[in-house]
């Protein structure tokens, strides 16, 4: 069993996280339960920032809050001096409600609404990452209406593909995101932005994919970008103050994954940007990055209670848990793979191949295919590792299943940061019919 972060096995043969017994947490807060290793999140955040500091490069490390957002997580990122990447009015509202400084918030998204742009402008956020001409012109119009100025980056697609699953590739030419470099859209967006009296064009942004285990893709994207930056500098006297290189830094889900340390990604980026800037006789721009999964992914563990089992001789042995695609849709969505162990018998050697089924009424609700576990029984606790990114944030109420609670564990203490949904919560927005008329209207 691979132990991430502060995870260990105590004298009772129980899995501990942050010095806290996960079996006790399951008893106190119920299952399914997301548990976050806060020390590991802090360590990752500091390692990204330190990599820039060691090189003397001005930078912003913005947590991509789509990976996992709640008040406590946003406050933790503020404690660590991070900036924040949001992609919706809801994520922005969460950030501002948590007291996160608005000037360190960057607003992303390929279809920001009029209301979202207005809300963000009135909140005086630090930067918009503009994705398309519709947004660019709507933002300029809003700025004029509200008599405000704002800073922007232009998101571009550099035509570089990262070696990841096709559903999470975003940097290639055929993408719903950004202005394309090669067909002239990016250049037109630069010209329109420079002509604006209320938009301050800080620089450009790209994001080439997710779960990236090498630096080559980033280096190639930087090289492609600099070909155009040199041209724009000569023709428009524009060279960016900021280069935002996105995120996508990989984590270890299974033994096949071999991610790099944050410093390795950052050093490769800085080296190439410095080389190309020196060659072009321009100053090295401020560098921004947006880690999300790599900060919280392997810091999160989901604890389930095992219920029913079904043995099909010579075919498969199913072990069902009290969650599934309602709290982790990634296996069903794009065949994501995970490792797991029994939290209440963590030191026992596996003896039997089983497959972990969720409880949703879908045959595709399978969390893990073919894993070796000790002989399991109803009431055992299953720990599925590395569920910290896109677990809770993509959770849902399919089959009217309430979303799980979330606990932060650090230095022997645990804190509930998201309450478990109740059945009453599921009905909170429902309006009943009475004599064929909406009673709550």
TrEMBL record:
InterPro entries: Ala_racemase/Decarboxylase_C (IPR009006), DAP_deCOOHase_LysA (IPR002986), De-COase2_C (IPR022643), De-COase2_CS (IPR022657), De-COase2_N (IPR022644), Orn/DAP/Arg_de-COase (IPR000183), PLP-binding_barrel (IPR029066)
Residue intervals of the Orn/DAP/Arg decarboxylase 2 C-terminal domain: 34-388
Record's keyword terms, sorted: Amino-acid biosynthesis, Decarboxylase, Lyase, Lysine biosynthesis, Pyridoxal phosphate
Positions where N6-(pyridoxal phosphate)lysine occurs in the chain: 66
Residues engaged in binding pyridoxal 5'-phosphate: 248, 290-293, 390
Record flagged with keyword Ion transport: no
Subunit structure and binding partners: Homodimer.
Protein name: Diaminopimelate decarboxylase
Organism expressing this protein natively: Fictibacillus marinisediminis
């Amino acid at each position: 069993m691979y132990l991430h972060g502060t995870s260990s096995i105590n004298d009772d043969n129980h899995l501990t996280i942050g010095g806290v017994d996960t079996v006790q947490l399951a008893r106190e807060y119920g299952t399914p339960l997301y548990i976050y290793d806060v020390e590991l999140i802090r360590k990752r955040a500091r390692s990204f920032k330190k990599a820039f500091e060691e090189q003397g490069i001005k930078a912003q490390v913005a947590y991509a809050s789509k990976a996992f957002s709640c008040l406590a997580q946003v406050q933790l990122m503020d404690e660590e001096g991070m900036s924040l990447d949001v992609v919706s009015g809801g994520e922005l509202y969460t950030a501002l409600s948590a007291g996160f400084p608005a000037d360190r918030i960057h607003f992303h998204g390929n279809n920001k609404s009029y209301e979202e742009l207005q809300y963000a402008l009135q909140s005086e956020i630090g930067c918009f990452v503009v994705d398309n001409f519709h947004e660019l012109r709507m933002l300029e119009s809003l700025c004029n209406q509200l008599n405000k100025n704002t800073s922007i980056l232009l998101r571009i697609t550099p035509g570089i593909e990262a070696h990841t699953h096709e559903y999470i590739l975003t940097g290639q030419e055929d993408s719903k995101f950004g202005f394309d470099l090669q067909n002239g859209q990016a250049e037109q967006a630069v010209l329109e932005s420079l002509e604006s009296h209320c938009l301050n064009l800080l620089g450009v942004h790209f994001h080439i994919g997710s779960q990236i285990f090498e630096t080559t893709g980033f280096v190639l994207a930087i090289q492609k970008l600099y070909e155009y930056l040199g041209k724009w500098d000569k023709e428009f006297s524009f060279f960016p103050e900021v280069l935002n290189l996105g995120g996508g830094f990989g984590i270890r889900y299974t033994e096949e994954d071999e991610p790099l340390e944050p410093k390795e990604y950052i050093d490769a980026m800085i080296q190439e940007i410095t080389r190309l800037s020196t060659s072009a006789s321009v100053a090295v721009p401020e560098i921004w990055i947006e880690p999300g999964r790599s900060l919280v992914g392997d810091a999160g563990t989901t604890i389930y209670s095992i219920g029913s089992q079904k043995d099909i001789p010579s075919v498969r042995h199913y072990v069902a848990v009290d969650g599934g695609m309602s709290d982790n849709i990634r296996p069903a969505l794009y065949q994501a793979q995970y490792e797991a162990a029994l939290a209440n018998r963590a030191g026992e050697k596996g003896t039997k191949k089983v497959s972990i089924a969720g409880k949703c009424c879908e045959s595709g609700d399978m969390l893990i295919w073919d894993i070796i576990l000790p002989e399991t029984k109803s009431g055992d606790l299953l720990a599925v590792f590395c569920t910290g990114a896109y677990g809770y944030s993509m959770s849902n109420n399919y089959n009217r299943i309430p979303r799980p609670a979330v606990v932060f564990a650090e230095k022997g203490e645990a804190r509930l940061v998201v309450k478990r949904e109740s059945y009453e919560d599921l009905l909170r927005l429902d309006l009943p019919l009475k004599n064929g008329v909406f009673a709550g209207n």
